[in-house]
Amino acid sequence: LETIELIPGCVKTDPDAYERISAEETFEVKITPPKLWKLAIIRPRFRHKLDRSRPPTIAPALKRPIDNSYASAELLAYIALGKYLYHIPLYRQEKMSAHWGAQLSRKTMADWIEAVADWFNPIYGRMRQKLLEGDYLQVDETPVRFMDPDQKKGKTTQGYLWVIGKPGSDVVFDWRLSRAHAEATSLLDGFEGVLQSDGYGAYESFAKEHEQVVRVACWAHARRKFVEAESEAPVAVRMVLGLIGHLYHYESQWDRRGLHGSKHRAALRTAHFGQSLHLLLKVAKKLQARARPKSKLGKACTYLFGQWSALLTHCLFGETRIDNNLIENAIRPSAVGKKNFLFIGSPEAGQRTAIIYSIIVSCERHGIDPLAYMTDLLQRLPTMSNQDDLDPLLPSNWKEAR
């Protein structure tokens, strides 16, 4: 907070004739635009006054994220956030940098992005490992178009961002060139527990092939299908939506009361969901009997019955959320910034993007300033060894560690 005082001209001219009795205070919001400035790092050499045989001594050089580069940790983090959080492509940041005090080339910034992803890769790997070691995962995937240099000039290829996460924990993106079932298997390799997903068959197949995995479905996806079909049978569909709404009403009540215990929540669901689920099944069967299979209503009913068993499984596992909205919300920043992928330039670079998205989205989930977090890591990681414990640096632990 800075202050200025505005003194009337007559008071300035004859201050002894006036006395201050009160003041009116207002405010305005100012802004300091980004500004590049140099920090000179001076390391004086010293020699011992009495023992001249000793070699001169000098403080060790600071370990920096990129050797022989003028880029500070703050600058690297700022450029990465500009692209992946605020969706400003590097060619625009190149133009903007001229107003910061110096022109930064797009090629240089692209090299910086690569270095940032390389430094964050061990953190990313540990985040993924901890999620897979847990007993509950939410998973989803989203298609992304990108430029592939092996294709004809101007042509794009479709890749996929696969995402795993757990409520209250970190989020991890993974870049794949396919949506094949085998990708889900390699993504989830080693996981044992409750897997929550939409109706994509790869997840159901994974659960069937792994005895230690139980799949639960997403009520939001089932509800969404009926919302899309509301115009075909308004009264009946509103009844379906109302019954699903009862489930959300109970969940909201239990959240407010802090009833998050696994066994307790499962018992509450079993006790309170029964009537709504019975009526929902009855109404949906009548709707399916009169709806054309390829109509929106027919597809909504088919989807509901196809997922019915996995939807009921929520009553056995109180730690689950009844929808996948948290993981869908995690995907949203990447959906907004999909145009950035047109500038990836190669399939391999997609994974670097997935690493940085994982860091940024996890920071936002934990209420962390991503600029502060990324700057701190880029300052600390170059000073660490392979034997150092990375867990305190994960977004889920970083606040506590600081």
Task: Summarize the structure in words.
With 402 residues, the chain is of the alpha/beta class. It is built from 14 helices and seven strands. The protein has helices at 9-13, 73-84, 90-97, 106-133, 181-187, 201-209, 219-228, 234-256, 262-290, 296-312, 325-336, 349-365, 370-380, 395-401; strands at residues 45-46, 57-58, 136-147, 156-165, 171-176, 193-196, 213-216. The strands form two sheets. Strands 5-4-3-6-7 form a five-stranded mixed beta sheet, with helices on both faces. Strands 1-2 form a two-stranded antiparallel sheet. Helix 7 packs antiparallel against helix 10. The two termini are 26 Å apart. The mean pLDDT is 92.
Topology (elements, then pairings):
Blueprint: H1 9-13, E1 45-46, E2 57-58, H2 73-84, H3 90-97, H4 106-133, E3 136-147, E4 156-165, E5 171-176, H5 181-187, E6 193-196, H6 201-209, E7 213-216, H7 219-228, H8 234-256, H9 262-290, H10 296-312, H11 325-336, H12 349-365, H13 370-380, H14 395-401
Parallel strand pairs: 3-6, 6-7
Antiparallel strand pairs: 1-2, 3-4, 4-5
Helix pairs in contact: 2-4, 2-13, 4-12, 5-6, 7-8, 7-10, 8-9, 9-10, 11-12
- Helix/strand structural class: alpha/beta
Strand order, largest beta sheet: 5-4-3-6-7
What's the mean pLDDT score?
92
Which residue ranges are poorly predicted, with pLDDT under 50 across at least 5 consecutive positions? Answer: none
Specify Rg, calculated over alpha carbons. Answer: 28 Å
Please, what is the oligomeric state? single chain
Number of strands: 7
In N-to-C order, the SSE pattern is: HEEHHHEEEHEHEHHHHHHHH
Span of the ends, CA to CA: 26 Å
Strand content: 5-15%
Principal-axis shape? globular
The biggest sheet amounts to: 5 strands, mixed
Note the total helix count.
14
* Helix percentage: 40-55%
